[in-house]
């Protein structure tokens, strides 16, 4: 990760054909998330409508030359971290993603908290720490989400990252729904 100034740790992207379980996680979570994504876009007056079926969404990515698969495994050792970032890999963005923790906090590692930041217009950033157990997943916005204000919905900017590992090894599986250019 250091190479790209993303933090410190190792990451590996899967290639097509994806392992069945990764493929299933993507295609079976997608319809629920697409429903929410469509609600968000409606609230924000964005015309995009995500198809109900994942296969159709992936075709759209591929037509737009986003053909490289984005699911990945990340490994953190003592001292490693993941800077606050947004997983944008081209102009086509599916607005929700999922990360699953594959190690047990306090048993396999300490530190290494998953964090989300939310930047509301003209305000200081807020931070949310998501405490996960091994096998838990967190579904979160890739870059923006709607919030209801006095004059309707507005967008807030989101980033995610991982705080420094104090000891041990921490593995995660990242499921991003859009492919990369
Ligand atoms: O390791 C984590 O908890 C976060 C990994 C990440 O940035 C991602 O899944 O997109
Ligand atoms: Fe990420």
UniProtKB/TrEMBL annotation:
It comes from Candidatus Nitrosacidococcus tergens. This is Fe2OG dioxygenase domain-containing protein. Residues 67-180 form the Fe2OG dioxygenase domain.
């Amino acid at each position: 990760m250091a190479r790209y100034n993303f933090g410190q740790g190792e990451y590996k992207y899967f290639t097509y054909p994806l392992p069945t379980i990764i493929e299933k996680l993507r295609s079976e979570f997608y319809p629920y998330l697409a429903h929410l994504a469509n609600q968000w876009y409606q609230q924000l007056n964005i015309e995009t409508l995500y198809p109900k079926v994942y296969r159709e969404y992936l075709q759209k990515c591929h037509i737009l030359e986003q053909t490289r698969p984005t699911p990945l495994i990340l490994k953190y050792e003592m001292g490693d971290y993941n800077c606050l970032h947004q997983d944008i890999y081209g102009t086509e963005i599916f607005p929700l993603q999922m990360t699953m923790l594959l190690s047990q906090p306090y048993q396999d590692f300490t530190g290494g908290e998953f964090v989300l930041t939310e930047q509301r217009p003209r305000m200081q950033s807020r931070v949310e720490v998501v405490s996960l157990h091994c096998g838990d997943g967190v579904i979160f916005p890739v870059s923006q989400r709607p919030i209801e204000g006095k004059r309707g919905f507005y967008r807030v900017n989101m980033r995610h990252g991982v705080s420094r590992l104090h000891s041990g090894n921490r593995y995660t599986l990242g499921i991003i729904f859009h492919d990369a250019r």
